[in-house]
Write a structure and sequence with these properties.
By secondary structure, the chain is an alpha/beta fold. The chain has 3 domains: 164 residues, Rossmann fold; 81 residues, Orthogonal Bundle (Helicase, Ruva Protein, domain 3); 51 residues, Arc Repressor Mutant, subunit A (Orthogonal Bundle), CATH 1.10.10. The chain is built from 14 helices and 9 strands. The strands form 3 sheets. It has a 5-stranded parallel β-sheet with strand order 2-3-6-1-7. It has a two-stranded antiparallel sheet with strand order 4-5. A two-stranded parallel ribbon has the order 8-9. The longest helix has 19 residues. It is globular and about 65 Å long.
Amino acid sequence: MLSKSFQTIIIKDRAILEVMEIIERVAKTDSSVLILGESGVGKELFAEQIHLHSGRSRFPFVRVNCAAIPEGLLESELFGHIKGAFTSAVSGRKGRFELADTGTIFLDEIGDLPLPLQAKILRVIQERQFEKVGSDATITVDVRILAATNKDIEELVQNGSFRSDLYYRLNVLPLFIPPLRQRPEDIPELADFFLKSYMKETKKQFSGFSRDALDAMLSYSWPGNVRELQNCIERACIISKNEFLNSEDLFLNSAQRPSQTEPSDRNLKNALNAFKAGFIRKVLEENNWNQTEAARALAIQRTYLSRLLKELNIISPKE
């Protein structure tokens, strides 16, 4: 669909601020961008930011969820069709690529794209040309392609379910969005934003979050990422009868919570630092305390990781 409005993006964590710095540089080009990250991290929001910071920002931004459209209809949705191309084609129709001409098209869940359509997408990237379903007439478009997936696309290439040539053309400028559990400083900011939004929708007023609610959110691993946090706050606003939303209102699964800070340390700064230290230590252990590899896994600069190790007093067992 054509975008008439864009979503608000909330940023506080250093890792995401670094992503935004990359986006500002990437946006100035017309190269394809492949956005990677778990489901629910907000890949579409970052695609929007690339478009908004680009020279195409005054032109269409068209979104396509490749996993949400039935395979039999996807080619027509992407490239359009002429009248009589198939039984139900009672009139001609423009596809998403044609609608995105002069602007940007965002192909979400591109890992679910069927192989036959992958070849056609590759042609659009290389030649900016395609044909509508049922037509021999070639259409030329000027469109920037952004794509996203939550799948291990390199594994898809290896097992033959995703074309290697398409992967390399899309992966010119890869962009990794860290999961919410790696962005603890964003959690209170996002929670407050969603709270204000759902207070308006539910016509209820809350004074904020209780300390135990903040502790619960900061110590939870958020497997569903930002989308799960949003749903959590919406549900809490609907059911709560308290002045402050508390941990019971959030209904967070205790199995997804790592060890929490001691009661005497329960303030926001200490909770954030405890979460950061525990997570960074875990990633370092997984990478045999190789700081270069750990920084890559955390999607942060090596120098920033070194500074965090000093600030959080994380010492390698090898030292």
